[in-house]
Automatic annotation (TrEMBL):
PANTHER family: MUTATOR FAMILY TRANSPOSASE, TRANSPOSASE FOR INSERTION SEQUENCE ELEMENT IS1081. NCBIfam families: transpos_IS256 (NF033543). Keywords: DNA recombination, DNA-binding, Transposable element, Transposition. Belongs to the transposase mutator family. This is Mutator family transposase. Residues 59-79 are annotated as: Disordered. InterPro entries: Transposase_mutator (IPR001207). GO terms for molecular function: DNA binding; transposase activity. Required for the transposition of the insertion element. The lineage of its organism: Bacteria, Bacillati, Actinomycetota, Acidimicrobiia, Acidimicrobiales. GO terms for biological process: DNA transposition.
Length: 416
């Protein structure tokens, strides 16, 4: 059976080949302000707007049906728009009544959406306003420095909607950690922005939200943060992994009474190393491993005593582990698949790494909202759909089965 003929595709290809041949004959470039691509873009945009006007008026251009029929064409006006290939000047048709609202290139629109998306992407990668402006000037020969802030400010409303969007009813795990960003508030100082990430029953990473702490972290603050998350639909959480944040454990159990508060084991180990000389790290790591790989709390307690006795020259190790013990020991109750998931807040730290790259390039932010906008744009660049969900891990199913057995009846409540 012969393959179907792609008439439209062949016609487009022939048209493109014709344009290329004509450009070669004239010595014309394919790209650039006066290149073939600019001509094609101009033609497509003008054709699109002309078709829209014909639909608006009810007759085609030069059609006698439009004579003496009320509203009609009223010439054109020249307009330059910034596109993915640079600035393009087009002739936009008008109507006498002034009621024509084109969608191809809207009134007062000076940039196509692709340019806005590019600016937001570069901003999220850590480029400053000056660097983005210089890049666009170099690549496209156009200046947009005055509009970059307008482009990024346009996502503030979108960010507000994202922060209030409905969430899943159940999360097997939620991770909470803070990232510190320099903000000028009278003087430049580090400001904590708390990030919460949940792992859904389907094994997806769901960025629940970002919230500035304003230096007011405590039980009341955390209760407000968690209540807001609960009010967005989160009825139950099995485990909340955090890093010894003051007042957070009490707020967790108040919000979700059945939730287990688990300290981040990786953070606990890192904090232990901070108390010791770098020369001792390798040997200390070997002595710490039997504690968090123990089969139960009794074995872990014995290993901790051995480690603290051996490293008696660092007495703060014992004090720190004793203080963290109530939030550490739940880790020992779970099988390997669950331990692998809750071992650390790496789910957040990978996001924080991207956020730090974006924030460090700017040095500091003039206010809290500017910092929030930057952090949100990083999230947005990871998730263009705005849903905040990413695949958590390839081996989620074994972990899901372990969660379903350990927290029987909670992952799939019967009333859903």
């Amino acid at each position: 059976m012969p393959e179907p003929v792609d008439v439209v595709g062949d016609a487009r290809r022939a048209f493109a080949e014709q344009l290329v041949e004509e450009a070669k004959a004239k010595g014309q470039q394919l790209v650039g302000p006066d290149g073939v691509l600019a001509e094609i873009t101009k033609l497509v945009l003008e054709t699109g707007v002309e078709v829209e006007l014909s639909e608006h008026l009810g007759y085609d251009k030069h059609d006698p049906a439009g004579r003496n029929g009320g509203n009609s064409r009223n010439g054109t006006r020249s307009k330059t728009v910034i596109t993915d290939i640079g600035p393009v000047t087009i002739d936009v048709p008008r109507d006498r009544d002034g009621t024509f609202e084109p969608a191809t290139v809207r009134k007062r629109q000076r940039r196509l959406e692709g340019v806005d998306a590019m600016v937001l992407s570069l901003w999220a990668k850590g480029l400053t306003t000056g660097e983005i402006s210089a890049h666009l000037a170099e690549v496209y020969g156009t200046q947009v420095s005055k509009t970059i802030s307008k482009i990024t400010d346009a996502v503030i409303e979108e960010m507000s909607d994202w922060l209030l969007r409905p969430l899943e009813a159940v999360y097997p795990v939620i991770f909470i950690d803070a990232i510190h960003v320099k903000v000028r508030d009278g003087q430049v100082a580090n400001r904590a922005f708390d990030v919460a990430i949940g792992v859904t029953v389907d094994g997806k990473r769901d960025i629940l939200g970002i919230r500035p702490s304003n230096g007011a972290e405590g039980a009341k603050f955390w209760l407000g943060v968690l209540t807001e998350i609960k009010n967005r639909g989160v009825g139950d959480v099995c485990i909340v992994v955090c890093d010894g944040l003051k007042g957070l454990p009490d707020a967790i159990t108040t919000t979700w009474p059945r939730a287990v508060v688990q300290t981040c084991v990786l953070h606990l180990l890192r904090n232990t190393f901070r108390l010791t000389s770098r020369a001792d790290w390798d040997r200390l790591a070997k002595d710490l491993r039997p504690i968090y790989t123990a089969v139960n709390e009794d074995e872990a307690r014995g290993r901790l005593e051995e480690c603290c006795d051996k490293w008696g020259k660092y007495p703060a190790i014992r004090t720190m582990w004793e203080s963290a013990w109530p939030e550490f020991v739940p880790f020992l109750d779970y099988e390997t698949e669950i331990r692998r998931v809750i071992y650390s807040t790496n789910a957040i730290e990978s996001l924080h790494a991207r956020m730090r790259r974006a924030t460090r390039a700017r040095g500091h932010f003039p206010n809290e909202q500017a910092a929030m906008k930057c952090l949100y744009l990083v999230v947005r660049s990871l998730d263009p759909t705005g849903k905040g969900a990413h695949r958590w891990m390839n081996r989620w199913k074994p972990a899901l089965n372990a969660f379903a057995i350990t927290f029987e009846g909670r992952l799939f409540p019967t009333d859903q």
